[in-house]
Every structure is written in structure tokens, then in C-alpha cells.
Amino acid sequence: MPTDDVPETFHVTTDEQLRAVSNLTRHRIMAVLRFEPATITQIAARVGLAKGSSSYHVRLLERAGLVKVVRTRKVRGVTERYYAMAARSIVLPDPGEGGPDLLMRHAVADLEASPADGERHVRMAHLRLTDEQFADLGERLQALADEFRELSDPALPDTSLVFALFHPAARQQAEEDTK
Questions:
Q1: Fewer CB within 10 Å, N or C, the chain?
Q2: Closest by alpha carbon to 92, among 108, 106, 113?
Q3: Nearest to 54 by CA among 34, 38, 76, 36
Q4: What element of type H or E holds 147?
């Protein structure tokens, strides 16, 4: 996607925007638009939806300011609109303690929907780190993700990278919460 006039980040701040990104189908539509503009027909084919459903979801994303029309063209008397992301990345508000993390929920749903016989690299590691090591690992993971995002080629198949670096709840407290 041309990045000359596209802002780096879009901060989700309103309820309408949060509702728009909370939907898994709209999350998948935004993933389609991450690298290149697409029409409703192209989006529908990539996401596996009817054109009417795709149009509905894209309109909601457009109304929330998350996607925008970047060009149009006439095809047999009909104006075809090409949609793209309004920014290179979207920043969601902190879900707060105990709140659902939408990105992780969408990532897990996408992982579960991916072909079981396809190549996947899924790993969980439990670490014990100093605050400095924790911060360093977070920065390195972000830099690595940014490096490969810059190398992304829209002609290649989609690949998702998800990582979460966090301090889990204390075990004693977590056990009490489940009682």
C-alpha cells in the first residue's frame, strides 16, 4: 500500500470505532486491506463472504474512520471503489484488568481457522526476566515484527505474527479467582 500520505497509527478512541474493530469479520477485512487497496468484490473473495455482507462491514469500518476510499474507477457504468486502511497500524485502548484483549481473541480465532496441515509455528515459553530484560525483549520483538512488515509483499500469501509478552497474574490470586 502506498504510504506517502497514510498516517502511521490510528488510535481507537470511540465506542463506534471499538465496536467496528471488535468484530472478527471486520478484523479479517482490515487484514486484507493492510497491504493493498481492494474492491468489495475482491474483499468478499478473500474473506469468503457474499458481496453484500462485505459491503456492509466495509461501510461500518469506513464510518468509524478505519478504512477509506483511496481511488475509484468506472466499470460498465458503475463506480468501483478501492478501499484501504486509514493508517498503517491501529492502536486499541487498554482493555483494563480482566477485560478481553480483542487482538488476542482475533488471533486465536484466525489460528484455529487456519489449515491444521499447514505450516505453523506456535510456541509458548515461560520466562523469568528482570524488568530490563523484559523491556529489551519487548523492544526486540517489536523491531523484528517491524522489519518483516517492511519486507511484506502483497503478492505473497498472508502470514500472521502474534506475540504477547506479559506478566501473568500471581498464581495464588489466579487460583482464588477461579473458585
A1: C
A2: 106
A3: 38
A4: helix 131-151
Does pLDDT of 174 surpass 50?
no
Q: What is the pLDDT of residue 175?
A: 55
- State the pLDDT at residue 4: 58
The residue-averaged pLDDT of 7-30 equals: 88
- Is the pLDDT at 56 greater than 90? The verdict is yes
Instruction: Enter the pTM of the model.
Output: 0.69
Q: What are phi and psi of 37, to 5 degrees?
A: -65, 155
Cα gap 30→24, rounded to integer Å: 10
C-alpha closest to that of 3 among 57, 84, 67: 84
Q: Name every residue whose Cβ is closer than 8 Å to that of residue 70 and which is 6 or more positions away in sequence.
A: 37, 82, 83, 84
> Given its phi and psi angles, is residue 98 left (phi above 0), alpha (psi -120 to 50 degrees) or beta?
left
CA distance 25 to 8: 23
